[in-house]
Each structure stands twice: as structure tokens, then as C-alpha cells.
Amino acid sequence: MLLTLKKLDLAYGPKVLFHDASLALPPQARAGLVGPNGSGKTTLFRILLGEGEADQVERERRSGVRVGYLPQDGIVLPERPLLEEVEAAAGDIRQATAQLARAEADLKELRVEEEDYAECLERLSHYSQRLEELEAHKLRPRAEAILFGLGFGKDDLRQPCHIFSGGWQMRIALARLLLDEPDLLLLDEPTNHLDLPSLRWLEGFLQGYPGALLVISHDQAFLDKLTTTIHSLENGDIITYTGNYSAFLEQQAARREQRLRAKQNQDKAIARTERFIERFRYKASKAAQVQSRIKQLDKTERIELEEAAATVHFEFPLSRKGGHRVVKLEEIAKAYGETEVFRGFSLELQRGDRVGVVGRNGAGKSTLAR
To answer: Is the pTM here over 0.85, yes or no?
Structure first.
């Protein structure tokens, strides 16, 4: 296993997030982490990283395993150019390049007959070979391909990172992780700020990712395409289901039905035992049996059902039905300075239409809605 957690306990006052929970992540895992909001998904990520505190936990991480983490927010990037920032994520290449440059500089200061000359040549050869093994010559094409896949354009590559909005900075952080290729990727809602083309590209990239994945997402289609295991946070435990998200929903429903029947049978058995205790509590001839049943009840592990997810109830007041044609646009045009968004664009929406508007970020979707 790359990373395991055992005997995980964590509570905030009366709210129990985890009790004696465990999780195992093998190499090449394709796993989703699901649960209601507030159930502890992001907290679990921090515990996996060794950054979050738990009341109790046994954490094992295979030696040398590198873990990469994409948070939902709080990403702050430096002012250096976009392409340079992403390339800097390739730590092994960066380190080997620095060592090679140091060896080259040392060599210029040495004469052939000096004692350190041979050692310097050996270092030079070692780091040159190391860069070949890491395919350092492919670093820039790989970085550009990832950035283009995530929606950046050629003109963006030399722009400083800090000028991009929060959603685009998340894409930069994601690009760094994908280029670095850690052994285990922890992705917390990676699709939140992606448009449809970028989302489709990311799905394809992650399907061929050489390491392991653990993903938090509310996007069922995304989880269906990527995952073969679902870890579900339920009643303080981490329940593991085999299959993608759709398979998980079926298995979870069957498991809940099974637990409901088991609880109903247990409740009946407990009620019978309590009636027996109450009936014969003060009868001397039954004292041993009463005590036996009291001990039996004390040792019984009560089956608890998952709490139903909170729902919101609302209703819209009745209103006068509008006309058949809701809106009609004819030959509209819109530009921001020299940037033309629409020209000669027409659209008609009729009552009952269900229309989706797609396009890359900046194409004008929100402008069209306004």
C-alpha cells in the first residue's frame, strides 16, 4: 500500500467525524471520496498528508512515496511567468539541472592535472545521464500541453501568475501537480473552475495517469469515468465500495436496506429481552437469567442507521403564463474594446425550451445571459 490509516478517531465536541475508521490506498488506485458536506472529506485529506490532527490514528506511508494535493481554495502563486512556474514543479529535473550547472562551473575552475578534475567529470556525466533518464528535453512540451489542455493560450505562458483570477490559479496549481506526477494525487473538487473542454481533457489525462488518485468531487459523471473504488464517509466510518460512483449508489442503497432490516430485527430482540428483564427482575428463581440478559444487552453493539441528508423545501408562487416566445435576439453584436464577443448572432427561446450554453472561459456565456 502507498498509504494507510488505521484506528482513526476524531471528534469536535459531541460531533464525531471518525471512530475507529481505516483507509488503504494501493498503487494505481482510482478512488473517489464521498460524503455529505461537513462529514470530514477535506479533514481526511489533511490527515492523509500528515497536516491534520486526529484524536488517534495509525498512519503508514511507504518510503519514498510523493503525495501531491490540490486544495479547493487558498492557492497563492508568485509573480513569476506562468510557464516558468509550472516547469518549476518538476523537482527532480530542476535539482539535476542545478547540480549539472554546478559541476560545469566547477570544471571551468579546475586544471586537468588537479586531483578533483576526474571527480568533477564523473559528476558531470552522472547528472547528464540523470537528465536523460528524466527526459528533461520533453519538459517544456509537456508543460505547454498540460496548460493548453487546461484552457490557457499561448499568450498566457509569459504572463505573471498573480494576474490570473482564483479559478485560473487553481488550474495553474493543478498543472504543476500533473507535470510533477507524484505517486499519489489528492484532488479536492478539481472540476469546480473548469469549463467543458478543460474538464474533458482532464478526464482523459487522469485516465492515463501513472500514479494513484483519490478525488473529492460532486460531479457524478467525472467520478463514473475515473473511479474503480468509492470510499464513503458514513456514521464516523469509511466504507469502501467496489466500482464507480453509479455502482456505489446501488450498493449503498442495498447496504442501507440490509442494515435497516438488521436494525429492525435487533430492536425486536432487544425489546423481548427488556420485557423479560422487567418481568422477572424481582423473581429469585430467575435472577441468574435476568443478570445474564442484562450483561447480554450491555455487550450488544447497537446498529445505527445513517442520518438522512438534510433537504430544503420550497415552492414558487403561481404566476401568469407568459407568451410562447420568451426571447428573440436578431443580429446582435457585442465587443469589449478590440475583443469581439458576438457579431451577427441570433437566438430564439420558446416556452418549455431547455438550452445549454457551452464554450471556453471568456467566450461570452455570461455576457449572453446578461
So the answer is: no
